[in-house]
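User: Can you predict the 3D structure of PH (Pleckstrin Homology) domain-containing protein? Sequence below.
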Amino acid sequence: MTRSSSPEGVRTFRSPSGLVMMIASGALALFLLGDAVVRASWSQMMLLAPWVLLALWLVYELSFSSFVRIDDSGVVVQNMLRRTQFGWRRVRDIDMRWQLEFALDDDRTVTAFGGPTRARPPKPTRSDREDGGVRVPAGLRDLTEIRDRWDGAQGADVDAPIRRTWDTPALVAIGVIAVWAAAAVAVVNIG
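Assistant: Sure. Here are the predicted structure tokens for PH (Pleckstrin Homology) domain-containing protein:
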């Protein structure tokens, strides 16, 4: 999981493969749009751009947008277009099946698609055998860190309500791309 450059005490868990996918997809999209400008024209690129941006938006939503952010006041879990925010007092239990799960006091469970995940234990290396140490999987270390933050916050007044919202910037972006694609289709059909 990657660490964010957020303020002190805030930790963001996000799949590292999502970042790799976004960088590779962004580079490919930039190449395709640049190639369209070089081989055709700016106007042709503007007609092709919404389709490339639609594919890039899908990659963003499926691989990068999901995350778990914890701080002293509570948790924010974003699963693609849905965002759930709650205080530590609302949490009844934290567990990891395949993904991180928060059992809340409203009898719902929030599964975090972008948070720590269960993985196979790492293979012991030669240095592990010599030291007698056991390497702990990264997902288990992250789960322990989240549970420690939860345990530390139970005495504090962190009773934020459970808020479920939509990812408005992503919805606005797909709306703009859809309007742009409809305009591109209209321009092609007219001319």
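The beta strands are 11-13, 67-70, 74-79, 82-87, 91-96, 99-104, 109-117, 163-166. The longest strand covers residues 109-117.
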